[in-house]
Design brief:
single chain; 381 residues; alpha/beta; Rossmann fold; Dihydrodipicolinate Reductase, domain 2; 2 domains; nine-stranded mixed beta sheet; six-stranded parallel beta sheet; 13 helices; 15 strands; 23% strand; globular
């Protein structure tokens, strides 16, 4: 195989952007040969904008067409594991949009299937893993330069959504259509990076505010406290009603502190670990000798990211994995990690108690079903 033939299921907002990237030739070694959407309007858009691409209404017909080697799934969240399962069972390389799904039991089954298909590539669109600052942070963590984790905090409140956003209707911003609010819509990338850099917690206490200052039935303001096996702690705060909001990630370790904010990474690296320094220090209020490393995204790099895009980087990596065995930046199996944190925050809020990981998956699904029924009853009034 010298070119991977791609099909896209769902050519709405994200799917159509993905399609244009392929048509523009931004993904070397790949060609878009088919798309699918249940919307006649979106299929009409495809006819006008995607030349020499077959257009389908039924996604199984596209999967069975023999025209594609790989499929991109860009549909509502509940459908991700269902369609990915069908694609893998039909022998197709599969790339799903984030989040992996709505509840972890479905993703656990999907991961088991993907593992059994070792000749197929399974990926997830965690495009923010391609951001140079997060990648450098990952290098520092993996090299042990931050040391043992003490604390990881992320305040991410800079994606403002007014009531008009929710008034558009559709599946977004509902328990039935989307599976939640800001945790499942805006936060999957950050929850993935949170665990990618800090590891998985063992306990979570979540507090969610439902429809704060908005007429919606899902959460739009969240504060979560986490504990880790080594005694480290984490705080994750997010909302969609603050303006201008904040986006600040801090990771504190025994050997230093890392901060990412405003397109800049600042790493303060201690000359000796705090534990070692404390064992020998005799001064009353000392400072530990350290050095500072600052990384910024250059204007040229920022422009390149805007033009080419992080999504394109994932497509290129996914394609190169199929053709040349290049290591995946975002393996699909890792989609369960951030979703586990999201599910745990919701479940903790619903139960008004601390949740230990791994979570009780059936309890989460029962509670989610209650919210869906309450939402239906409210809408039928």
């Amino acid at each position: 195989m010298d070119k991977v033939r791609f099909g896209i299921v769902g050519i709405g907002k994200m799917g159509s952007i993905h399609a244009i990237k392929f048509v523009a030739g931004l993904v070397k070694g790949a060609v878009l040969t088919a798309v699918c959407d249940i919307s006649e309007e979106r299929r009409d858009w495809a006819k006008k904008n995607l030349k020499n691409v077959e257009i389908y209404e039924n996604y199984n017909e596209m999967l069975d067409s023999g025209l594609i080697d790989a499929v991109v799934i860009a549909v509502p969240h509940y459908l991700h594991p269902i369609m990915a399962t069908d694609a893998l069972n039909k022998g197709l390389h599969t790339l799903i949009e984030k989040p992996a799904g709505v509840y972890t039991s479905a993703i656990r089954e999907l991961n088991a299937l993907a593992k059994s298909k070792d000749n197929l590539t399974f990926g997830i669109m965690y495009n923010q893993r391609t951001n140079p600052l997060y990648r450098y942070a990952k290098e520092l963590v993996d090299a042990g330069r931050i040391g043992e984790l003490k604390r990881i905090n992320w305040i991410i409140t800079d994606w403002y959504r007014p009531q008009a956003y929710y008034n558009q209707g559709g599946w977004r911003g509902t328990w039935e259509g989307e599976g939640g609010g800001c945790l499942i819509n805006q936060c999957p990338h950050q929850l993935d990076l949170f665990q990618w850099l800090g590891g998985m917690p063992t306990k979570i206490r979540g507090y969610c505010q439902i429809g704060k200052n908005r007429d919606i039935t899902v959460e739009n303001d969240v504060t979560a406290y986490m504990e880790y096996a080594n005694g480290a702690t984490g705080i994750f705060i997010t909302s969609t009603h603050d303006f201008p909001g904040t986006n600040r990630l801090e990771i504190d370790g025994d050997k230093g502190k890392l901060v990412i904010e405003g397109g800049k990474l600042v790493f303060t690296e201690l000359d000796v670990s705090e534990k070692e320094f404390n064992a020998t220090n005799t001064k009353f209020m000392p400072s530990i000798p350290s050095k500072k490393i600052v990384k910024k995204i250059s204007k040229i790099k920022e422009l390149a990211l805007q033009v080419v895009g992080q999504h394109t980087a994932i497509f290129r990596n996914f394609t190169n994995n199929i053709l040349f065995g290049e290591k995946l930046i975002a393996p699909g199996e890792e989609g369960i990690n951030g979703l586990t944190i999201s599910n745990a925050i919701h479940l903790s809020h619903w139960k008004n108690d601390v949740v230990e990981l791994p979570i009780d998956e059936s309890a989460f699904e029962e509670e989610l079903a209650k919210r869906i029924q309450e939402e239906k009853a409210l809408n039928n009034k």
